[in-house]
Design a protein that fits this description.
This is Sodium:proton antiporter. It is globular and about 60 Å long. By secondary structure, the chain is mainly alpha-helical. It has a two-stranded antiparallel ribbon with strand order 1-2. It has one domain. Helix 2 packs across helix 3 and helix 4 packs antiparallel against helix 10.
């Protein structure tokens, strides 16, 4: 597609988006006014369904399709990282590099802090997911904490232990299963907020592990072969 065609296509989309945004903004209630149509309906539906808080009701009962979209965006991001960061023809993976060299040389203070924070951070992530139905949100946030907490081992200088703790193929399968479970629960209209929240936490956590793990592999294990003499 030529540059002129791309510019015209963008301009058409921008004009349409601006028109829709303007039409929606003009119909908004006055700021600080007593009329809040969406808020009133959201609270009423949350009370009717017996959900513990309005935020969880909105996320999982009233706009679950939007939450599914967010899940699939993250799934696509992880899939894109796996595809883009795969070993290409001019590269090769030195799978034994980290095992030959063992843990990196880091200060004792950093290593101790990393090992101490790992279980505490994992517990915090599980707590956020488990109580996500009782507090506003929780599944997505808890999944982010879990997905990043595992990589405290890297900060502690022990990449071989990190590789053993998070085998990439296992997390690939777990992410797909969690995303599928969320969709199935939503389509069956049988998923309670705690179950949907747990599926979100599992999918987000696995996706973060895949994303960070693939970047680590690209930076630490993948190398270009030496040029022939």
């Amino acid at each position: 597609m030529k540059a002129r065609a791309r510019t015209l296509l963008f301009a058409a989309g921008a004009v349409g988006t601006a028109a829709l945004f303007t039409a929606g903004a003009l119909d908004l209630p006055d700021f600080g006014g007593p009329v809040h149509p969406y808020g009133d309906r959201a609270v009423r539906e949350a009370l009717g369904k017996g959900t513990s808080n309005t935020v969880s009701s909105v996320n999982f009962d009233q706009r679950a399709l939007d939450t599914i979209g967010e899940e699939l965006i993250l799934l696509a991001s992880a899939l894109g990282a796996v595809v883009l960061l795969r070993v290409v023809r001019k590269e090769e993976e030195d799978a034994g590099a980290s095992h030959r060299h063992g843990p990196a040389e880091v200060s004792d203070a950093l290593r101790i802090i990393g090992y101490l924070l790992l279980p505490l951070t994992l517990m915090a992530g599980v707590y956020l997911i488990a109580h996500g139905a009782q507090s506003p949100g929780g599944g997505f946030q808890g999944g982010v904490v879990l997905g990043t907490a595992i990589h405290l081992l890297y900060l502690a200088g022990d990449y071989p232990a990190l590789q053993r703790l998070r085998p990439i193929p296992v997390f690939e399968s777990a992410e797909a299963l969690a995303a599928g479970a969320f969709v199935a629960l939503g389509l069956a209209a049988a998923g309670q907020v705690p179950a949907l929240n747990a599926a979100v936490g599992a999918e987000v956590g696995c996706a973060l592990v895949l994303l960070i793990g693939k970047f680590f592999e690209q930076a630490l294990l993948v190398r270009e072969p030496p040029e022939p003499p």
